[in-house]
Design a protein that fits this description.
This protein is mainly α. The protein is built from eight helices and three strands, in the order αααβααββααα. It has one domain: Orthogonal Bundle (Arc Repressor Mutant, subunit A), CATH 1.10.10.10. Pfam families: HxlR.
């Protein structure tokens, strides 16, 4: 995530920019997908990985750590054998749902029409 650190440093130069602040909090490339998936409820790592199969294991780990560090995701460890770890959204993470809905509206209106047609064909 060295690229992320570099981007965050560049962002700090634009002090006061709310977009930069959002990017620093969310940070990771796959953060939006992880947050959207966790809106469905708490999930274990392997469950998340299956549901977001486009994200590689290390990237998912890094994204979850970053979101946890920034207070959007809660990591709960259960003392089982083997240890069970479950991820869920905090209140701060759940509150991001409104922003995700607005992004969804925007992409429905302005997204790639070819991709939208392909997606519609898959759901029929």
């Amino acid at each position: 995530m060295d690229e992320l650190a570099s981007d965050n440093n560049n962002c700090k130069e634009k002090a006061g920019s709310s977009i930069c602040e959002v990017l620093q909090i969310l940070g990771a490339k796959w953060a939006f997908l992880v947050l959207e998936e966790l809106l469905n409820g708490p999930q274990r790592f392997n469950q998340l990985q299956r549901n977001i199969s486009i994200v590689k294991t290390q990237s998912l780990t890094d994204t979850l750590r970053h979101l946890e560090k920034n207070g959007l995701v809660l990591r709960k460890v259960f003392p089982t054998v083997p240890v069970t770890v479950e991820y869920s959204l905090t209140e701060k993470g759940s509150d991001f749902q409104a922003a995700l809905k607005e992004m969804d509206k925007w992409v429905q209106k302005w997204g790639n029409p070819v991709q939208a047609i392909e997606s519609a064909g898959k759901t029929l």
